[in-house]
Design a protein that fits this description.
Elements: E1 2-5, E2 8-17, E3 22-32, H1 37-51, H2 56-62, H3 66-69, H4 74-88, H5 92-105, H6 110-120, H7 131-139, H8 146-161, H9 163-176, H10 181-193, H11 197-210, H12 215-227, H13 231-245, H14 248-260, H15 264-277, H16 282-294, H17 298-309, H18 314-327, H19 334-350, H20 354-372, H21 375-383, H22 395-407, H23 411-420, H24 422-425, H25 429-435, H26 439-448, H27 455-471, H28 475-487, H29 495-514, H30 517-530, H31 539-552
Antiparallel strand pairs: 1-2, 2-3
Helix pairs in contact: 4-5, 5-6, 6-7, 7-8, 8-9, 9-10, 10-11, 11-12, 12-13, 13-14, 14-15, 15-16, 16-17, 16-18, 17-18, 18-19, 19-20, 20-21, 20-22, 22-23, 25-26, 25-27, 26-27, 27-28, 27-29, 28-29, 29-30, 30-31
Length: 567
């Protein structure tokens, strides 16, 4: 403990033997002013080691002054300490700022350089920015405590040689410091990222047992238990993560788990609480819109997104347009989706983010296919991205390009894209099989690659597989694929918004083909209720109206809209 009287600081240490509930050692030192605290800590450390019966020779041989292995600037250390607290609450950007301020105050603060590099590794797509601070940390390795040197070496091994080299350094460290929290967490993280969740849990729980406030470990435990479908444990750790950190990521994780466990209302209430705590965060609106969509409360979903688009804040307006671009296909509002898409593309051009702009251009092209079936117009839009292709590595872009090739029946180009980006898109081959009418092979490949396929892409695969099976007359299998599609509640990439309404239509086609007139009529009516305000010129809307009218056996015109249920 540290107490202050005027300009003097008293540093006290009580060393306890917990098992026997007795005091082993007490010691204290004084400092006249802040600048003397590191030296006071050095003296206190020597007293402690002598009190524990270490010889003076042993002490002198291994003694390093605090300022030599951390920093002589208490202000710099304070920023470093705040950075550690923020990092543990997964406030990564804020933690980076604290580490930078620590470095600005002491350019020889090796630990701060290392933690800045580590924080950078959490920023998806910006990991390469950690190389320079790590290089400086390595240059200052003799000014870093011995224990943390292992962590620096491990980070170097991860960046330069990969996860297995990283793992070896951490296991070496475990031999010397078996209970060190950061090492335990990193080993758990290694097992998580190498698909060994049961081992990951063991290490993360060891961290939490030592420190119940360790936010990163709590967040990871909630994530791993969710992946293992042990949702009660996942919820317990997610709640603990929120209570410890009150962070935005904790609110989002808990809301997501409520959704996964069939309690979307719990997710909505969690996000509404998050909005009180973080009223300026647009991602809360986006998440609320997604939950309202899952509950078929489309009007409320649209209101959340419009609230963003009409905000005076430019970033909020961007996210509102982005959300609407991926939402409006649910309602058959493809013109509105196209306009929102243009706003997003313009924003990306202004930011000079050519990759993001190219990805959205391909999405805009896909809207032309899904809406009016205008493949020619779609291909014209896609051509605008060609000049940027040599610099685009994003799998999202090449996924879009491959899909457009499939819609154009240019299967050779689609296969070429899959092969060229096999490390990222190998799981796309069953999609190509379905387009080519190879239903059995598509099913087999989907089962084989099930763990690799992103959920939002699985939606599109199941849809095109269902169409393939329908054409082969395998109606029961087609129905199962469509029902499986409808259960996936992943809104990424706009695929669910595009294919969920179409899945309703194709279920109607299946029932109609079987002669189940009542079920077909009810299914078409459900589609029309969903698309009650859809663009009138959409071919699919006109077809469903015609089929519904035929099944009704009516001569009069079909009503232009239906009442919405719980919208």
């Amino acid at each position: 403990s540290i107490s202050r009287t005027g300009d003097r600081y008293l540093i006290s240490l009580n060393l306890l033997e917990v098992d026997k509930n007795r005091t082993l050692l007490t010691a204290r030192e004084e400092s006249a002013g802040l600048d003397g605290i590191p030296s006071a800590i050095d003296r206190l450390a020597e007293k402690t080691r002598r009190g524990l019966q270490e010889s003076l020779v042993e002490i002198r041989a291994s003694q390093r002054q605090v300022a030599q292995v951390t920093t002589a600037s208490l202000e710099a250390y304070q920023h470093y300490f705040l950075g550690e607290q923020l990092l543990n609450r997964l406030k990564i950007a804020e933690a980076e700022q604290e580490y930078r301020q620590a470095i600005a105050l002491d350019s020889t603060f090796g630990l701060a350089y290392y933690r800045l590099a580590y924080a950078r590794s959490w920023q998806l797509g910006e990991e390469h920015l950690g190389r320079e601070p790590l290089r400086k940390a390595l240059a200052l390795l003799d000014r870093i405590p011995e224990k943390e040197r292992f962590l620096v070496r491990a980070e170097q091994a991860r960046i330069e040689k990969g996860l297995e080299a990283y793992f070896r350094v951490l296991k070496e460290m475990e031999q010397h410091y078996p209970e060190e929290k950061e090492m335990l967490f990193n080993l758990g993280d290694y097992y998580l990222h190498t698909n060994q969740p049961e081992k990951a849990v063991v290490y993360f729980e060891r961290v939490v047992n030592r420190d119940p406030t360790h936010g990163r470990a709590l967040e990871h435990l909630a994530r791993v238990y969710s992946d293992l479908h042990q949702y009660e444990k996942a919820l317990a750790f997610a709640r603990q993560f929120l209570s410890v950190t009150n962070s935005q990521s904790a609110y989002f994780q808990l809301a997501d788990l409520y959704q996964k466990t069939g309690n979307p209302e719990g997710g909505i209430q969690t996000l509404l609480q998050a909005r009180v705590a973080y009223p300026q965060n647009p991602h809360i609106n986006l998440s609320l819109a997604a939950l309202y969509t899952d509950l078929e409360r489309y009007r409320q979903a649209e209101e959340e997104l419009l609230r963003l688009r009409e905000s005076p804040d430019s970033e909020a307006r961007f996210w509102g347009a982005w959300g609407l671009a991926f939402f409006y296909p649910y309602l058959g509002k493809y013109r509105a989706a196209d306009q929102a898409c243009k706003q997003v593309i313009q924003y990306h051009w202004q930011q000079r983010d050519t990759t993001a702009a190219a990805i959205m251009l391909l999405y805009q092209a896909l809207l032309k296919v899904w809406g009016k079936g205008d493949i020619s117009a779609a291909w014209q839009i896609a051509q605008r991205t060609r000049p940027f292709q040599p610099r685009i590595a994003s799998y999202a872009y090449w996924l879009g390009w491959a899909l457009l090739a499939m819609y154009r029946q240019d299967y050779a180009t689609a296969e070429k894209v899959i092969q060229a980006h096999r490390g990222q898109l190998s799981w796309l081959s069953p999609h190509l099989n379905a387009f080519q009418g190879e239903c059995e092979q598509a099913q087999a490949e989907m089962e084989k690659r099930s763990s690799e396929i992103p959920e939002y892409v699985r939606i599109a695969m199941l849809f095109h597989l269902a169409r393939c099976l329908y054409k082969k007359g395998e109606l029961a299998a087609a129905e199962r694929a469509l029902l499986a599609l409808q259960k996936i509640q992943d809104h990424s990439g706009g695929f669910r918004a595009a294919f969920y309404p179409r899945s309703i239509y194709w279920l109607g086609r299946i029932f109609e083909r079987r002669g189940e007139v009542q079920r077909a009529r009810e299914t078409y009516q459900k589609f029309l209720e969903l698309w009650h305000s859809a663009d009138e010129e959409l071919p699919l809307l006109q077809e469903v109206r015609g089929r519904w009218k035929k099944l009704q056996g009516l001569a009069e015109e079909i009503p232009m809209s239906f009442g919405l249920r719980s919208r």
